[in-house]
Design a protein that fits this description.
Number of helices: 9
CATH class: Alpha Beta
Oligomer: single chain
Structural class: alpha/beta
Shape: globular
Strand content: 15-25%
Strand order of the largest sheet: 3-2-1-4-5-7-6
Bound molecules: S-adenosylmethionine
CATH topology: Rossmann fold
Largest sheet: 7 strands, mixed
CATH superfamily: Vaccinia Virus protein VP39
Number of domains: 1
Length: 262
């Protein structure tokens, strides 16, 4: 990320997400989320870009995993690299606590917007942490995450911005901070395996670089399960943005659901 600046890619995601249909749940506050997203997106004209379909599919997949976990009784949700994600508002539910982890610059910008908009964030704990240097279990403990209660951890659109060893530590830290029965939903960039895939990744890398951010990690699809296992997670399902099992896809992206392997 550009020194001293909140994430620009997170702003762009917020602007796109504002245009997507989302589920509603009793007690949820979609209006508060929309107000935050509109504030973040002010001045941006999202339009339909090559990324729009990907982001729509990613948003729907994460929403589905989260709502499924809430139905199953999970009452702790960690959003790692939360950016301007407003799920802690949109899907607020009595007894459920959300924990947002993000780079100090992005989080400070988000907290400033939430305060200015007068949005109630009492169901959300915010911990500023740089995944490159920070202590993830300590950050979670500092916002009263209970390491004894099963947790859903969501890493949406952040893995590709971290060096692979930092990503491994992040996932390992989440596994260490969460007990058996916990789940992980992570979206990942895969090493492209086709010419079209390599060209698409190069275009995306250039767009992101123009915003001062770097796409750094790509996971080889054949090592996906191994990579997760080394970070303490057992992969359960891995699909591409169209919902196809990865074994039947040569796409560049994976949406992976895993359970705690500890
Ligand atoms: C593309 S945004 C995605 C945000 C959000 N998950 C979403 O889908 O809307 C990537 C996020 O990763 C965060 N991030 C990038 N590098 C980070 C780091 N070293 N430590 C903590 N957060 C980081 C950025 O601040 C940003 O919020």
């Amino acid at each position: 990320m550009r020194e001293g600046r909140a994430s620009e890619t997170a702003r762009r995601v917020a602007a796109q997400r504002l245009t997507f249909p989302r589920p509603c749940i009793p007690g949820g506050r979609p209006g508060d989320d929309d107000r935050l997203q509109a504030d973040v997106a002010a001045g941006l004209e999202p339009g339909v870009t090559p990324l729009t379909n990907y982001l729509r599919a990613r948003t729907a997949w994460v929403d589905g995993v989260l709502l499924g976990a809430l139905e199953e009784g999970i009452d702790q949700v960690v959003l790692a690299g939360a950016g301007y994600d407003g799920r802690g508002l949109r899907y607020a539910r009595a007894g459920v606590r959300f924990f947002e982890l993000d780079h100090p610059e992005t989080q400070a910008d988000k907290l400033g917007r939430l305060a200015r908009l007068g949005i109630d964030t009492s169901g959300v704990g915010f911990a500023a942490v740089d995944f490159l240097t920070g202590d993830l279990p300590a950050a979670l403990a500092g916002v009263d995450h209970d390491p004894g209660r099963p947790t859903l951890s969501i890493c949406e659109g952040v893995a590709e911005y971290l060096p692979v060893e930092v990503l491994g530590s992040l996932l390992g830290g989440l596994s260490a901070a969460c007990p058996r029965g916990s789940r992980l939903a992570v979206t990942l960039a895969l090493v492209p395996v086709t010419g079209a895939g390599r060209a698409s990744r190069a275009r995306l890398r250039a767009v992101v670089a123009s915003m001062g951010e770097d796409l750094t990690s790509e996971i080889p699809r054949e090592d996906l399960a191994g990579f997760l296992a080394r970070s303490g997670w057992v992969a359960e399902t891995a699909v591409d943005p169209a919902g196809r099992d990865l074994t039947r896809s040569d796409g560049n992206s994976a949406f992976v659901l895993a359970r705690s392997g500890l």
